[in-house]
Amino acid sequence: MDISTTAFTVNGKTYHPPSKPVVVICMDGSADEYYNASLARGRMPHLEKMIVTGFRGLVRGALPSFTNVNNSSIVTGVSPAVHGISGNFFYDEKKDQEIMMNSAEYLRADTILAAAANAGRKVAVVTAKEKLRDILSHKMKGIAFSAEKAAQAKMDTHGIDNAEAITGHQTPEIYSAAASLFVLRAGVALIEKGMADFLYLSLTDYMQHTYAPEAEASLDFYAAIDTELGRLLATGAIIGATPDHGMNAKVDEHGKPNVLFVEDMLEAQFGNHFRVICPITDPYVKHHGALGSYVVIHMNDKSKIPAVKEWLEQQPGITEVHDKHAAARLLEQPEDRTGDLVVLSARDVVVGRRPQYHDLSALDGTLRSHGGRYEEMVSMILSQPLNAAYTMKAAGDPRNFHVFDFLINGTK
What we know:
Elements: E1 8-10, E2 13-15, E3 22-26, H1 32-40, H2 45-53, E4 55-60, H3 67-76, H4 80-83, E5 89-92, E6 97-100, H5 112-118, E7 123-127, H6 133-136, E8 142-146, H7 155-158, H8 163-167, H9 177-192, E9 198-202, H10 206-210, H11 216-234, E10 238-242, E11 248-249, E12 259-261, H12 262-270, E13 274-277, H13 285-288, E14 294-299, H14 305-313, E15 318-323, H15 324-330, E16 341-345, E17 350-352, E18 368-369, E19 377-382, H16 388-394, H17 403-409
Parallel strand pairs: 3-9, 3-10, 7-8, 7-9, 12-17
Antiparallel strand pairs: 1-2, 4-19, 5-6, 10-19, 11-18, 13-14, 14-16, 15-16
């Protein structure tokens, strides 16, 4: 397979791709505890080999630690302040509308994938969740389809016909381990058939929302992932794997969901002046019930912002409260797409709106979720060792959205 090594520049960074297939995997929800539990039991020999011969290190994700935010950061190489995606969901004050942030119309930066395609690489995006496909394939010439809607992929809209036949697998149920495994198997098939040599594979975190790291279902799932990593390595690809966020149990000592309903709390204390937005909100209700560890607050009476901020900071379970300007600076948020206040909660706590907005009965398991500081630190695993310059960078403050840079420019 003739693979282009033409360099390309996007968002201020120049990439010098090798004459090998490049594969970056977003290991959705894969907190380090999942890897560690499986590695300790000998369930991931291919990942273990990648770590021994390549690189594994801690990196900082983008906040809020949600799917759309971090996938957008990974494929652009920049923070939310630059690319503009501030959540899965946001409130547009000018339009007075609460909007799902699934469309590329909200993306303010070009992608590494589109730039690679323009430089002659055969680019493919396979995502478990259909909600990401439009953003990830923004301006991109190549293949882009989801496991969720694989049967509906068409050449004129997705760059591929007969995705099920090409991958050898039927469209999976989105609430399943099979959804993520389909993505990896599709990546293997696209490389083996010469259809792609520059791939972004984005998994789904249904399993991590549902099962703890030591659960047998988790161990089986990561063993199956490891099998596909082995098949990807066998194609000669270089691989970079990083999660979009980690995952934690959000329950009390009795195993009950640990939820602060912030809009109710504020109304009881200050009256009816608030709209609380949960940026984790998306179509996948069995994952998290729209409950995460990060919410934004829009206020009618801006003069009350300091008093509300001070009161919230004193509430048990709330760890950080930032006004709009601080959120833009400290949390790297696009200032026009965040609220008057941003609230983050403790490791075992989620923040929500009101009980009627969150159907906990829809959850398939206990409440495990993400969004705040405690799911921000994740790992980056590369199949190749780092060169001297990037070994130094890795000792600094690398980000999960530097994975393309580290894999392409930073390995020996």
